[in-house]
């Protein structure tokens, strides 16, 4: 280093020190008070606190969701100064709640909104119909979102030909479908994968393309908090795709030679898809948890042996016994199916069982294990409410199961309790959901309370509802989400629905609780289990933890779950 | 088929209305609704009144949406699906039904196993039709009164079930959605003409399921040249009915 440059540097330091010495010093407390005063004085002008009034906001959207607005009169500022839109928070506000979540190969929240608006603007000047999404009257989308239900659209990914829509009481107008597809396609053209979007009213749109062949779009009126709703819709799309593969096989869905024929064939998936959308059966949480809803029989060894023997005799390694739609016993191979498959097959069997038929022979593809070769799913209704299934061929029902009628009746008698009477639950447990994180199985129950209490305890239906909410709340916020095996790491990063809260910590929350007027709830996580408990408000808050830990150890000790 | 006995000549028709049938029908009813039997269950009579059970396999044929699944549910006294969801494989439904043989006065339980296979599934998977056809005793050919092409295709469908390879199978034509007369697309005269040329019994169904008993009785006593019950008995037991006990038991084992 030369001495002259050294001198220059020293001079700079001296200059800086002089400058700092001349500054008038105040105490920290004084500075803090000044800052506070300044903030309060200027609070009215702070757009972060008050939002931007629509008259001064140059980026004001015409309608709820600006890219669906029919008017093309978007201000030119955006096109001129896109750099100013870089800050996600700001853009969010400017769009009046129209948040676009997306991921470029990991970009920021909100930028796409800017890109889309910019392009729309350009489109106004020089029409480029192939690029810009078609414009729709925003009120159609609003109407869709209002009734709070979930709508599902399916299109071909390459050309955007509508294949089907479900969940809507009436057919969606083509322009709506067209623009939902158009926005996504447009993003694709910009090197951006649009994954979800939120409207001012709390509505949500989620896009996903499967195998480059089929695009699924879910639209929901929202209601619950956005993070949770988005996670739910993402999972819904994944499950819907699995249903389609299960019934039709992957080949038919990806080698799309004849769209009209595919359209017709897709009708055979509607029963399962509608079941997913409606969540018909109370007390079945598999779609939510991706864990197999299970029932712990009083005589597990006996039934296990019978299922193993039955499957073997049927020349199959996959066998499973369902009681009240929950798995009571299954062969080892059955448990080695992807968790999502186990849940899906249970759903298929439940819907067949609900029809009251005596036996079924259904060709099914396994979305992960065998997406291109169909297996035969044979289901036999042993007793109303008890079904046995194998993936293969079998005609030996009576031989294997007749001696077990009484054991099966004992299982049936458990009802929705799902656990043998040898497990003594504490009286102050209203409802519980227990997940085994290793086996991806779950048991859940809501207890009916004979004694009236004041204030009245939540009804059975409400308890199921609360249990679901507790699960969603805890698992999206605190406990790590165990994704199904099917999600590739790349997709996982794309989806990014893990709560920032968790990401900000180096450790894992292990317990959480909440107290409301209706009930108190507790979530507990160990290396092997997750337990979610509802208790009456009368239980003292300090006791929640011990009730939870004791319940967990009671169940595990008695059943080995 | 000239040797098929006349309707009502083998089993007592409308026996479910007779007093002496009550103790038998009680076994298939629960709280005035039809009982749903699992495969491990069957109506059980007290030891002194034990009766044999005769098994039949009945295949329901017809194009997608004509009402195959609905008919199976109707005959079993189950809830009829209000919307059309395609059946994507085979579903079987079991119907127990006591009958009284006219000649001997002997009572039997019919165990009708209805095989319902979605039309589109049949087209997509080759293995389904053979298992439906295997050892089948009767076929119900469905058409819908609201769907003319389904009626026009009948003779073609029935034709596939003639010939030596199929063996002796009782056949019956069922017209569904008879209640939707506003949308009726098949004239009564056409139906009569058809019946005359084909010489098959024809049943019209539709509307609400009443007590869940009438429909099965209708099916079994269906007027025509061969009442189905007679046809069934004829195809397996043959007149005189149920001579060989061994025949019965082999049928029972077959399931
Ligand atoms: N009004 C009326 N509707 C009927 C009748 N039978 C069937 N339906 C309706 O017709 C629709 C189709 O009936 P399904 O029984 O599901 O049709 P399917 O023949 O099983 O069709 P696939 O399984 O696709 O081969 C359903 O919505 C039924 O409710 C009837 O007798 N009257
Ligand atoms: Mg059907």
From TrEMBL, chain A:
GO MF: G-protein beta-subunit binding
Membrane topology: Lipid-anchor
Top-rank taxon, per record: Eukaryota
Location (main, coarse): membrane
GO CC, alphabetical: cytoskeleton; heterotrimeric G-protein complex
Domain G protein gamma per the UniProt entry, residue ranges: 3-68
Protein's UniProt keywords contain Membrane: yes
Location within or outside the cell: Cell membrane; Cytoplasm, Cytoskeleton
PROSITE patterns: G_PROTEIN_GAMMA
GO process annotations (BP): G protein-coupled receptor signaling pathway; non-motile cilium assembly; vesicle-mediated transport
Entry keyword set: Cell membrane, Cytoplasm, Cytoskeleton, Lipoprotein, Membrane, Methylation, Prenylation, Transducer
Reported function: Guanine nucleotide-binding proteins (G proteins) are involved as a modulator or transducer in various transmembrane signaling systems. The beta and gamma chains are required for the GTPase activity, for replacement of GDP by GTP, and for G protein-effector interaction.
Subunit structure: G proteins are composed of 3 units; alpha, beta and gamma.
Family note: Belongs to the G protein gamma family.
Protein name in the entry: Guanine nucleotide-binding protein subunit gamma
The organism of origin for this protein: Pleuronectes platessa
Automatic annotation (TrEMBL), chain B:
Gene3D superfamilies: P-loop containing nucleotide triphosphate hydrolases
Cellular compartments annotated: Cytoplasm, Cytoskeleton, Cilium basal body
InterPro entries, sorted: P-loop_NTPase (IPR027417), RSG1 (IPR039677), Small_GTPase (IPR001806)
Similarity comment: family membership: Belongs to the small GTPase superfamily. Rab family.
Protease in keyword set: no
Source organism (scientific name): Pleuronectes platessa
SMART domains for the chain: RAB (SM00175)
Keywords, in A-Z order: Cell projection, Cilium, Cilium biogenesis/degradation, Cytoplasm, Cytoskeleton, Exocytosis, GTP-binding, Nucleotide-binding, Protein transport, Transport
Pfam families in UniProt: Ras (PF00071)
SUPFAM superfamilies in the record: P-loop containing nucleoside triphosphate hydrolases
Protein name, as recorded: Ciliogenesis and planar polarity effector 2
GO molecular function per UniProt: GTP binding; GTPase activity
Residues making up the signal peptide according to the UniProt record: none
Predominant location: cytoplasm
GO biological process, any: cell projection organization
């Amino acid at each position: 280093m030369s001495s002259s440059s050294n001198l220059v540097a020293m001079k700079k330091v001296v200059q800086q020190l002089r400058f700092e010495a001349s500054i008038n010093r105040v105490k920290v407390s004084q500075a803090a008070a000044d800052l506070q005063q300044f903030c309060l004085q200027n609070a009215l002008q702070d757009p972060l606190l008050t939002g931007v009034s629509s008259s001064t906001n140059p980026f004001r959207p015409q309608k709820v969701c600006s890219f669906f607005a029919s008017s093309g009169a978007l201000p030119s500022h955006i096109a001129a100064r896109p750099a100013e839109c870089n800050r996600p928070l700001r853009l969010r506000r400017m769009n009046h709640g129209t948040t676009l979540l997306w991921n470029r190969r990991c970009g920021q929240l909100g930028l796409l909104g800017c890109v889309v608006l910019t392009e729309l603007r350009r489109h106004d000047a020089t029409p480029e119909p192939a690029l810009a999404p078609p414009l729709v009257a925003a009120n159609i989308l609003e109407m869709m979102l209002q009734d709070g239900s979930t709508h599902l659209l399916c299109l071909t990914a390459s050309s955007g030909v509508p294949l089907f829509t479900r969940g809507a009481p009436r057919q969606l107008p083509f322009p709506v479908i067209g623009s939902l597809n158009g926005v996504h396609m447009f993003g694709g053209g910009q090197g951006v994968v649009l994954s979800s979007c939120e409207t001012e009213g709390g509505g949500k749109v989620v896009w996903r393309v499967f195998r480059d062949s089929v695009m699924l779009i879910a639209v929901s009126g929202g209601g619950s908090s956005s993070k949770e709703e988005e996670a739910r819709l993402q999972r819904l799309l994944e499950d819907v795709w699995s249903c389609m593969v299960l019934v039709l096989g992957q080949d038919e869905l990806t080698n799309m030679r004849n769209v009209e024929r595919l359209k017709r064939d897709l009708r055979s998936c509607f029963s399962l898809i509608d079941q997913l959308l409606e969540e018909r059966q109370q007390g079945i949480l598999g779609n939510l948890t991706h864990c197999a809803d299970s029932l712990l029989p009083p005589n597990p060894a006996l039934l296990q042996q019978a299922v193993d023997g039955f499957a073997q005799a049927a020349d199959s390694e996959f066998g499973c016994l369902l009681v009240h739609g929950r798995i009571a016993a299954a062969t080892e191979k059955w448990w080695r199916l992807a968790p999502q498959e186990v849940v899906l097959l249970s759903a298929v069997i439940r819907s067949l069982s609900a029809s009251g038929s005596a036996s079924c022979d259904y060709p099914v593809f396994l979305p992960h294990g065998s997406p291109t070769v169909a297996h035969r799913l044979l289901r036999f209704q042993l007793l109303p409410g008890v079904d046995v299934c194998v993936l293969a061929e079998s005609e030996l029902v009576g031989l294997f199961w007749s001696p077990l009628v009484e054991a099966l009746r004992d299982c049936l008698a458990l009802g929705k309790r799902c656990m043998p009477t040898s497990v003594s639950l504490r009286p102050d447990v209203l409802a519980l959901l227990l997940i085994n994180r290793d086996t991806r199985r779950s048991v859940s129950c809501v207890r009916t309370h004979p004694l009236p209490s004041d204030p009245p305890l939540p009804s059975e239906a409400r308890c199921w509802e609360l249990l679901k909410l507790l699960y969603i709340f805890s698992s999206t916020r605190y406990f790590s989400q165990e994704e199904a095996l099917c999600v590739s790491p790349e997709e996982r990063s794309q989806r990014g629905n893990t709560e920032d809260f968790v990401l900000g910590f180096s450790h894992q929350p292990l317990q959480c609780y909440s107290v409301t007027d209706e009930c108190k709830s507790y979530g507990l996580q160990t290396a092997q289990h997750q337990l979610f408990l509802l208790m009456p408000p009368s239980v003292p808050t300090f006791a929640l933890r011990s009730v939870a830990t004791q319940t967990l150890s009671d169940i595990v000790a008695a059943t080995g779950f | 088929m000239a040797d098929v006995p006349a309707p009502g000549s083998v089993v007592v028709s409308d026996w479910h209305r007779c007093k002496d049938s009550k103790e038998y029908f009680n076994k298939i009813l629960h709280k005035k609704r039809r009982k749903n039997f699992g495969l491990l269950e069957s109506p059980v009579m007290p030891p002194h009144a034990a009766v044999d059970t005769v098994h039949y396999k009945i295949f329901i044929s017809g194009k997608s949406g004509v009402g195959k699944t609905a008919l199976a549910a109707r005959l079993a006294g189950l809830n009829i699906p209000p919307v059309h969801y395609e059946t994507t494989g085979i579903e079987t439904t079991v119907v127990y039904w006591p009958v009284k043989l006219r000649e001997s006065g002997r009572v039997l339980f019919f165990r009708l196993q209805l095989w319902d296979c979605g039309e589109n599934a049949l087209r997509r998977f080759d293995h389904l039709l053979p298992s439906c056809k295997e050892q089948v005793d009767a076929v119900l050919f469905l058409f819908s009164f609201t769907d003319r092409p389904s009626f026009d295709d009948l003779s073609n469908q029935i034709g596939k079930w003639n010939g030596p390879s199929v063996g002796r199978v009782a056949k019956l034509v069922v017209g569904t959605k008879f209640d939707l007369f506003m949308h009726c697309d098949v004239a009564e005269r056409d139906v009569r003409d058809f019946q005359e040329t084909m010489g098959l019994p024809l049943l019209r169904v539709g509307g609400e399921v009443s007590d869940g008993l009438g429909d099965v009785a209708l099916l079994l006593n269906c007027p025509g040249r061969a009442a189905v019950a007679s046809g069934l008995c004829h195809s397996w037991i043959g007149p005189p009915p149920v001579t060989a006990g061994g025949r019965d038991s082999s049928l029972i084992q077959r399931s």
